[in-house]
Specification:
Largest sheet: 5 strands, parallel
Order of helices and strands: HEHEHHEEEHEHHE
Number of strands: 7
Bound molecules: adenosine-5'-diphosphate, magnesium ion
């Protein structure tokens, strides 16, 4: 059975190849991607100088004003509500500029505002492993293909489906939705996205059953 220590070993060996490695963590909304990436990065770094950094795909959410302009605000979170080409370009930069002089800045995602936040995640030159996580890393359509191509490996988080939905509802409530709004959003919008993501599971290099 796969353990968290196995994942740590695998991540370390990816980063042991000389240059900078990019590891992707995919999975449906609420599957536990962000939590797993955070734990991995924390354990890998220990108390020394950080050599692993977490970069969220969520930083490439289009801003609400742009979603309004495109008429896509009501399905925020779907693949075409992200700047996939910008994400792919950032991943390429993270690889190409690994030994450069400058810190590369990735955008973060502000959960209360539900908006991307530029310049939130610094990736300084000594970083040897970028752990990037999000729903659509394995989608393989349009610019998402370039996202996958920029990554050395992609792992797929698989959690119990009822548990995933329960946690997702709880997270929406935590960030301001009423219980009814949260359930409605999860059943309508998130569920469609979850089905798209589930269909990409077989493209993963490793399936990670959660919780570990
Ligand atoms: N192993 C776990 N045990 C308990 N709760 C968890 C676990 N992993 C994630 N969660 C909770 O589930 C919710 C979704 O997890 P998150 O990592 O944000 O998922 P994702 O990034 O895939 O959407 C969060 O509220 C998180 O705190
Ligand atoms: Mg997340």
């Amino acid at each position: 059975m796969l353990t968290f220590d196995d994942l740590l070993c695998r991540a370390r060996s990816l980063a042991g190849g000389g240059g900078r490695a990019l590891l992707g963590i995919a999975g449906g909304p609420g599957a536990g991607k962000t939590t797993l990436a955070r734990r991995l990065v924390r354990e890998l770094n220990g108390t020394g100088d950080p050599w692993a950094v977490q970069v969220p795909m969520d930083g490439f959410h289009l801003a609400d004003a742009e979603l309004d302009r495109l008429g896509r605000r009501d399905r925020k979170g779907a693949p075409d509500t992200f700047d996939a080409a910008g994400y792919a370009a950032l991943l390429r930069r993270l690889r190409d500029e690994a030994d450069g002089e400058d810190t590369v800045y990735a955008p973060g995602f502000e959960r209360v505002l539900e908006q991307p936040l530029a310049g939130a995640v610094p990736v300084p030159p000594p970083v040897r492993l970028v752990v990037t996580e999000g729903n659509y890393l394995l989608l393989g359509t349009g610019a998402w293909r370039r996202v996958r191509a920029a990554l050395d490996e992609v792992w797929f988080c698989e959690s119990d489906e009822d548990e995933r939905v329960r946690r997702l509802v709880a997270r929406h409530e935590e960030f301001g939705k009423t219980h009814e709004q949260a359930v409605a959003w999860v059943l309508r919008s998130d569920q469609r996205n979850a089905e798209l993501v589930a269909a990409t599971r077989e493209r993963a290099d490793l399936v990670v059953p959660l919780p570990l």
